Amino acid sequence: MTLKELVVAYFQYPAIIAYLLLAVVGIGLWTWRPAPLLQTAASIGIAVLIYPLAWYSLHRWVLHSKWMWKHKWLAGTWKRIHYDHHQDPNHLEILFGALHTTLPTIVIATAPLGYLIGGFGGAAIATATGLLTTCFYEFCHCIQHLAYKPKNKLILMMKQRHMAHHFHDETGNFGITNYFWDRLFGTLYDRVSERSKSPTVFNLGYTPEVAETYPYVADLSGGVATGHPVERLRAKMKG
Ligand SMILES: [Zn+2]
Ligand SMILES: [Zn+2]
Ligand SMILES: [Zn+2]
């Protein structure tokens, strides 16, 4: 896939279209009952600032948690929103977040703060900001998983860190576009030589042994896959 094909695929993806439409709705609601200029700017600002922290926390303590696979009613969601992505990192169809989990999260992370700052208009514009930031995150994430070398140094660095999260040690580099919180919490690493290779980088700790006790994810996945995704793909194509 080329960058141009990626852009086309990106704008056709239902969740992206939904975010963009809902952002327009948010801006529309703000126009209908606007907050004063200062409160509007502050609501946008707080949404932009809180977003990387919300993402970091979710990625580290929810998506990489070891409790979601233990509950039958959460196992399917966990599989869909993160296990599958780590099992097969370059598979585009599961690259994007699932709308039923992302949408409530975006609203909860942004609307209350916007409301405190600027009432109804503040909540509307903060939510719209959260939705547009999500589009930006998803786009960067796509680029990181596309097989090409970015020319821009900043994007290249983002990509290398995220690739290390996928292929070297999943317990670091939780940010996608913003690594401030990784730096602060000590989970940032730039060189793979800084850390040893994690044996759970593709299964996130959901091993065949764990599956014996908590089989829900394995049941949904047709077993527990082991080994490198690329080798698994090759074996599948041969057989
Ligand atoms: Zn990824
Ligand atoms: Zn596919
Ligand atoms: Zn991850």
Automatic annotation (TrEMBL):
<keyword id="KW-0862">Zinc</keyword>
<dbReference type="GO" id="GO:0016020">
    <property type="term" value="C:membrane"/>
</dbReference>
<dbReference type="GO" id="GO:0005506">
    <property type="term" value="F:iron ion binding"/>
</dbReference>
<keyword id="KW-0560">Oxidoreductase</keyword>
<dbReference type="Pfam" id="PF04116">
    <property type="entry name" value="FA_hydroxylase"/>
</dbReference>
<dbReference type="InterPro" id="IPR014430">
    <property type="entry name" value="Scs7"/>
</dbReference>
<keyword id="KW-0812">Transmembrane</keyword>
<dbReference type="GO" id="GO:0080132">
    <property type="term" value="F:fatty acid 2-hydroxylase activity"/>
</dbReference>
<dbReference type="InterPro" id="IPR006694">
    <property type="entry name" value="Fatty_acid_hydroxylase"/>
</dbReference>
<feature type="transmembrane region" description="Helical">
    <location>
        <begin position="37"/>
        <end position="58"/>
    </location>
</feature>
<protein>
    <submittedName>
        <fullName>Fatty acid hydroxylase family protein</fullName>
    </submittedName>
</protein>
<keyword id="KW-0256">Endoplasmic reticulum</keyword>
<feature type="transmembrane region" description="Helical">
    <location>
        <begin position="7"/>
        <end position="31"/>
    </location>
</feature>
<dbReference type="GO" id="GO:0006633">
    <property type="term" value="P:fatty acid biosynthetic process"/>
</dbReference>
<keyword id="KW-0275">Fatty acid biosynthesis</keyword>
<keyword id="KW-0444">Lipid biosynthesis</keyword>
<feature type="domain" description="Fatty acid hydroxylase">
    <location>
        <begin position="46"/>
        <end position="187"/>
    </location>
</feature>
<keyword id="KW-0479">Metal-binding</keyword>
<keyword id="KW-0276">Fatty acid metabolism</keyword>
<keyword id="KW-0472">Membrane</keyword>
<keyword id="KW-0443">Lipid metabolism</keyword>
<keyword id="KW-1133">Transmembrane helix</keyword>
